[in-house]
Amino acid sequence: MKITLDEAAKERIAQHSDEHKLVLLTFEDGVGPYSQHAMIHMQVQFSINIISDTMPKEDYTETIPTNIGDFWIKGYSKEDLQENMRITLNPRLSTFALSGDGGVIDDNLGFIDFTKKTS
């Protein structure tokens, strides 16, 4: 299993990452501190999350290699992923999409940087 990011997606994520941060591909099922909601709809939803290497990640037990480093996932979320995946950024809408050889997995992949301080 692997993920390839297009240049625009790589650039956008790179703006938020460094050697002390981890990238999560979060299955939005309501489990864990970074999942924003449980699945209410009959569709699969994921988000890209940035956390620091000191933040808890016990729900994230596996990694998927990408062309910018490993993305951490909840192990059971592999059921909704595909072997060869792509993440692209639509610059006009500023949205990410996750797709695989079998088609679109999530056409509006969320993005949250949990390391940003809120006031």
Automatic annotation (TrEMBL):
Residues 1-112 form the Core domain. SUPFAM superfamilies: HesB-like domain. It holds the Pfam family Fe-S_biosyn. It comes from the Bacteria. InterPro entries: ATAP_core_dom (IPR000361), HesB-like_dom_sf (IPR035903). Signal peptide: none annotated. This is Iron-sulfur cluster biosynthesis family protein.
